[in-house]
Amino acid sequence: MLILFLIIYLYASLSSASVDVLFNSFTSNQLIFTGDATIDSSTIKLTKNVNNFSLGRAFYPYPIIGSNNSTIPSFSTSFVFSILPQRKTTPEFGLAFVISTSAIPPGDLLAGQYFGILSTKHSVAPILVVEFDTGQNPELDDNNDNHVGIDLNSPISVVKHEAGFYDGDEFKPVKLSSGKNIQAWIEFDGKELGINVTIAPVGTSKPLKPLLSYYDGVIAKYVSPSMLVGFSAGKTIWNETQRILAWSLADKGAPRQINTSDLPIILPESSPSSSSSSSISSGLIVGIAIICVAALLFISLSGLYWFKLRKKRGDKSDEVEGWEIDYWPHRFSYEELARATNQFSDDEILGRGGSGKVFKGLIQANNIFIAVKSINRDSKQGLREFMSEISTIGRLQHKNVVPLRGWCKEGQEMLLVYDYMPNGSLYSWIFSNSKTLSWHRRLMILTDIAEGLNYLHHGWLQLVLHRDIKSSNILLDSDLCAKLGDFGLAKLYIHGQAPTPTRLVGTIGYMAPELVKAGPTMGSDIFSFGVVVLEVVCGRKPTEMHSEYALALVDWVRKLHRDGRLSEAPDLRIAREEYEVADMERVLELGLACCDDVPELRPDMKEVVTLLMNLKTKYTSELQGVDCSDFGDFSTISNLSVTSDYGPRT
Ligand SMILES: *[C@@H]1O[C@H](CO)[C@@H](O)[C@H](O)[C@H]1NC(C)=O
Ligand SMILES: *[C@@H]1O[C@H](CO)[C@@H](O)[C@H](O)[C@H]1NC(C)=O
Ligand SMILES: *[C@@H]1O[C@H](CO)[C@@H](O)[C@H](O)[C@H]1NC(C)=O
Ligand SMILES: *[C@@H]1O[C@H](CO)[C@@H](O)[C@H](O)[C@H]1NC(C)=O
Ligand SMILES: *[C@@H]1O[C@H](CO)[C@@H](O)[C@H](O)[C@H]1NC(C)=O
Ligand SMILES: *[C@@H]1O[C@H](CO)[C@@H](O)[C@H](O)[C@H]1NC(C)=O
C-alpha cells in the first residue's frame, strides 16, 4: 500500500515536474550543446571564429510540460547576453531565443544565416523564435539592423521593434551589438497564447512596458504541450561573438533574479579608451558626411519641387499628360498612387525588398501598369535610398535598366514608381519548380544583365556602382528581357576617380572578398555578376549548404573546374541537347573569372558583353528565338560609345 502510494506520489510529482532554474554562470554538463556552441570563461559562446560558416545552439535539457497533454504551458525567463562583431564594418548576425519541440531542432539549411535555425525555403519544424537581430537582411523586410522580433517558423518576423526599452513612456534605443551586457525578459502565456519581450542594459531594472507584446491564437500552431527552449546563433564568413552570460527559467511565476553584478564584461579586444574614441570620431565623421550629402541632395530636390510647384501654380494645367508618363520621370501625387494601387491593398503586394514593400498598380487614364515601391519611413536609411534611386536610376535610360516613371514624397511617405515587370524576378524563375528557363533563354538573360551593368560602368556620364547585383534584383519584362532593378544602394562616381570606401553593403553570398578592406569598385559589381552567372547556369543559390555541396557556390564550381568535372555543374533542368558542353563550360569559366579573388584578374564588363553576345548570337541563329534588342544594338564593343544616346534627356 505504502509502495503504491509512493509510486503514485512519484508519478504525480514527475508528470507535473516544474522548471525553476538559475544559471549565474555555465558549465558544459548543464545544457545540450549542438554545433559550435561551447563554454568560454563560464559563459555560453554560440559560434566559433572560423573562416567559414558556424552555427551553435544551447538548450535546456528538460521540457516545459503542460498540465495535461493538450494544454500549452506558460513560462517566463530572463537572460543576459552580449553580441560583439569582430569588426565594425562587416555584416552582423545576432542571436535567437527558441521555443521548439526538440532540443536539437533541425534547420541548418542555410549555412550560418538566420540565427542558424530558420530558413526562407523550408518549414523546418514548428518553432517560435525571438530574434535579437543585428544584421539588416534586405530579403526579409528588416526595418533596421538593430531590432527585436518574433518569428513563427520563418525569418520574416510577425512583429518587430527597434531594440530599446521604455522608461515610463519614453523610448530609449539600445545598441545590441556593442558587446555590452543586455538583459532580456520573456513571458510566454500558453493560456491566452501571447508573448512579451523586454530588454534593458544590465543594471537597469525591468521596464514596466514590454518592448514587444504579441498575442495571437496562431501561436498554437508553433508551440506544443511539451516544449524545449534554448538559444541559437549563426554566422557566415564574418566573425561575431554571441554570448549568453546568465539565464533563469521558471514555468510558474517570475524567474529567479539574476545577480548581474559580477558577470564578465566582454568588450572589443583593442584597448578600450583608444578604440572607443577613434570609433566615435570616425563614426561621427561618416555620419556628418552622410548627413551633409543627404541634406545637399534634399535641398536641391526640394528646390526642384518648389520650382515645379511655382510653375504649376503659374499655368493651371496640373494634369499629367500621357506623353509625360511615357517619357519623363515625374512627380506623382499620393492620391493618384493610392488610387492606382487600390489604397495600397495587401492584395497588390508584389514583394518586399530591403527598403520596403512593392505594390502593383494601374493608372487608369493611360491603362499603364506600374510597380510602386514604398520606402520604409522609419528606417534611417530610407531617405538615403530614396535619393539614391532618384539620382541614379532616374537619370539612366537603357533597355536593361528598369525604368523609373516617377516619385512621390508627401509628408513621411516616400514612393518610387517603376514600369511593372510582369515576369517578376530572375530569382523566382531560377528557383521555381513550375517554370524552367531554356539554355538559350538563360544566355539571353545573362547577356541582358551584362549589357545593363556595362552601361552603368562605362555607358554614362558618371560611373554608377550598383552594389547589390543579385538574382532577386533582376527583373524580367513581358518578353523575358532582363533589367537591373533596385538601385537603393547604388552610388555615382566621377569616371577615373577612385570610389571612396563607404559603409559595407550588399547581400551575403554576392559580396566580393575584398569589399571589407577596399570598399566598392567596378570589380565588386563584377564579382556579384559572376555569382549570378553561376546561379543561372547551375540553378543553385550562392550560400546553400547541402551535404553534397557544403561550399559556397563559387567554391563548389571552382572545385569542379579543378577536378575537370565542370560538365556536372549545370542545372539538370536544362535539356542536355540544348547546348554544346564547350559553350556551357565557357560561360561557367566566365562566371569563375568574374569571381576571381584577385579583383585585377576579373574581366571588364566590355569583355563579358562581347563573349556573351557572340555565344548568344550562335544559339539565336540556330533557334530563331525572340530577341529584345529593339532599343539599341550593342553587338560590338566599338558601338559602346553610342550609349550616351540613352543617357538623360535634358
Ligand atoms: C570549415 O572549415 C573547417 C576547417 O577547414 C572544416 O573542418 C569544416 O568542415 C568547414 N565547415 C564548413 C561548414 O564548410
Ligand atoms: C486539460 O486540462 C485543462 C485544464 O488544465 C482542461 O480544461 C482540459 O479539459 C484538459 N484536457 C484533457 C484532454 O484532459
Ligand atoms: C495523452 O497522451 C498519451 C500518450 O500519447 C495518450 O495515450 C493519451 O490518450 C493522451 N491523453 C489525452 C487526455 O489526450
Ligand atoms: C504582456 O504585456 C501586456 C501589456 O503590457 C500585459 O497586459 C500582459 O499581461 C503581459 N503578459 C504577460 C504574460 O506578462
Ligand atoms: C574569423 O576568425 C578566423 C579565426 O580567427 C580568422 O581566420 C578569419 O580570418 C576571421 N574572418 C574574418 C572575415 O575576419
Ligand atoms: C550579487 O553578488 C555580489 C558578489 O558576489 C554580492 O556582493 C551581492 O550581495 C549579490 N547581490 C544579491 C542581490 O544577491
TrEMBL record:
UniProt cross-references to Pfam families, sorted A to Z: Lectin_legB, Pkinase
Family: In the N-terminal section; belongs to the leguminous lectin family. In the C-terminal section; belongs to the protein kinase superfamily. Ser/Thr protein kinase family.
GO cellular component terms listed in the entry, alphabetical order: membrane
Cellular location(s): Membrane
E.C. no: 2.7.11.1
Cleaved signal peptide residues: 1-17
Ranges annotated as spanning the membrane: 284-307
Bilayer disposition of the protein: Single-pass type I membrane protein
UniProt main location, coarse: membrane
Organism of provenance: Oldenlandia corymbosa var. corymbosa
EC top class, as a word: transferase
Statement: the UniProt record of this protein carries the keyword Kinase: yes
Reactions catalysed, as given in the entry: L-seryl-[protein] + ATP = O-phospho-L-seryl-[protein] + ADP + H(+); L-threonyl-[protein] + ATP = O-phospho-L-threonyl-[protein] + ADP + H(+)
Binding site for ATP: 373
Keywords assigned: ATP-binding, Kinase, Lectin, Membrane, Nucleotide-binding, Receptor, Serine/threonine-protein kinase, Signal, Transferase, Transmembrane, Transmembrane helix
Database matches in CDD domains: lectin_legume_LecRK_Arcelin_ConA (cd06899), STKc_IRAK (cd14066)
Recorded GO MF terms: ATP binding; carbohydrate binding; protein serine/threonine kinase activity
Domain Protein kinase: 344-615
Protein name, as recorded: non-specific serine/threonine protein kinase
Top-rank lineage group of the source organism: Eukaryota
